[in-house]
Amino acid sequence: MTFEPLVTSRLRLRSLEQRDAASLSAYRSDPSVARYQSWTVPYAAIAALELIQSTQARDITDLGWTQIGIATLETNELIGDIGFNRVDSSNAEIGFTLASDWQGQGLMREALETLLQYAVQTGVRRVTATTDVRNAASQGLLTRLGFTLEQILKDSWLEDGAYFDEYLYALELVETAARA
């Protein structure tokens, strides 16, 4: 099954396409974007193409990681992506990236709110996300989305020979849906 696009007032969440490789490589090569991510810069175009090819035919109902593109509604230009890891029928994990030129406009919040609403419809009840303890922007976004800090993962991130802690956030989607 392929991920069917979701549309917001400003965005289109869709499967990654081969034509997205240059954009994906470009924003993932930006040191400010990659700072707290698991890849190194530069993020090669071949790596972008391999990621696209590995996830193109996937949907968030499939177990494992599905990469979802975030594109502008107006031009369909890829400006970010969301990793959605379906752990089992009711649990998932997310990770997210947005090109630096598009940050600070509420776009990632808009994208994640829409994707989480869709996830509830597919049976997901709980979503987790980890973030480097130094990544205040992601922590703020997760908190605004209703995630709560559950745990500090000590020495879970190795970067340049030093270990860093991560925060584990969680959101109970059933509770969120009941409050809406």
How confident is the prediction overall: mean pLDDT? 95
How many DSSP-defined strands? 8
Order of helices and strands: EEHHHEEEHEHEEH
By CATH reckoning, the class would read Alpha Beta
* Poorly predicted regions: none
Summing up helix and strand content along with how strands pair, one would put the structural category as: alpha+beta
Distance between the termini: 29 Å
Looking at the overall shape, the CATH architecture is: 3-Layer(aba) Sandwich
Q: Give Rg in angstroms.
A: 16 Å
The level of helicity is 25-40%
Strand content: 35-45%
What's the tally of helices?
Answer: 6
State the CATH topology: Aminopeptidase
Q: Write down the domain tally.
A: 1
Order of strands in the sheet with most strands: 1-2-3-4-5-6-8-7
How would a crystallographer describe the biggest sheet?
Answer: 8 strands, mixed
The dominant shape is: globular
By CATH, the superfamily comes out as Gcn5-related N-acetyltransferase (GNAT)
Task: Please provide a written account of the structure.
The chain has an eight-stranded mixed sheet with strand order 1-2-3-4-5-6-8-7, with helices on both faces. The protein is 30% helix and 35% strand. The chain has one domain: 3-Layer(aba) Sandwich (Aminopeptidase), CATH 3.40.630.30. Strand 7 and strand 8 (162-172) form a beta hairpin. The model has no long low-confidence stretch (mean pLDDT 95). The chain contains six helices and eight strands. The protein has helices spanning 21-28, 31-34, 45-55, 107-121, 136-144, 173-179; strands at 6-7, 11-15, 64-72, 78-86, 91-98, 126-132, 148-159, 162-172. The chain is of the alpha+beta class and 180 residues long.
